[in-house]
Queue: 3 jobs
Job 1
Amino acid sequence: RHIFPRLSVTDNLRTGLSSIKENIPEDIYEYFPVLKEMGERMGGDLSGGQQQQLAIGRALVTQPELLILDEPTEGIQPNIIQRIGEVLKDLCQQRGMTIIIVEQYLDFIREFCDTFAIMNRGQVVAQDDIDALTEELIIQYLHV
């Protein structure tokens, strides 16, 4: 998750700001209230789900147009996965942000993503709207 384990949650978020005088945008705390509650806690003391929220929050501090996430659900409990998915969906719908997610948890992809692409050895072998992610494609390209 690449947070700074020996910095507080607040200081982790501040690392994304361009100036020490800037304030952390309030919407970060609206998306992830736990970050405000645990502001003084060390990043390394957080659970995996809290660390993931912190990592995403830190990226959002920069107000990106594009966010790329590599397996944001890995090792996280279901209620936190749901919250992260809702936040990502809201960022796309309300802010018009583009989010690329590399993910193996297909239920998450089906619930929160609009389109998909399957890659094999660096080549896109299938891509479409999420409704077209069929069991046949999954068996063909994703089963081991």
Job 2
Amino acid sequence: GDGALARLTPREFEVLRLAVSGDSSAAIASSMHLSPKTVHNHLSAIRSKLDADNDFKLIREAVRLGLVAFPTHGV
């Protein structure tokens, strides 16, 4: 579909997937065997590639790309 995700490396995609699912940078670093600094660097690169200059815009873009689904019932 959207070429935005194609600009991400597989590792960046995984960091994005974990971040938008609610994992902290420390948890992402631990699960991917990376340093927290490396996770922050990946998140910075992801924001740049997806034209998201803050976390809110990054999440909004992830929703638009179908990486995040919000429940439609019980709200």
Job 3
Amino acid sequence: MGNLIRTDGTVSEYPPKGKKYTLAELQAAVGGDITLIPLPDWSMLVVNEDGRRLNLPVNAGASAQLGRGAVPIVGDAVLCRRREID
């Protein structure tokens, strides 16, 4: 089960409807085409591929997952385990 991290700072559980997230579920959560960002602990950050072009707001909660010095994440993001993505 993953978490939806919104740009307004709220975090909520985002369970897949089945055993794994579908592409459509992830696209709905982030508002468009997705990019997958693997994290060292075998989790995955799913973000909007066009977030910068669309001038989406910075997501401090999602950016914190990447550590200091990383390019900030923009737009809503899903944090989940790699094995949860279909």
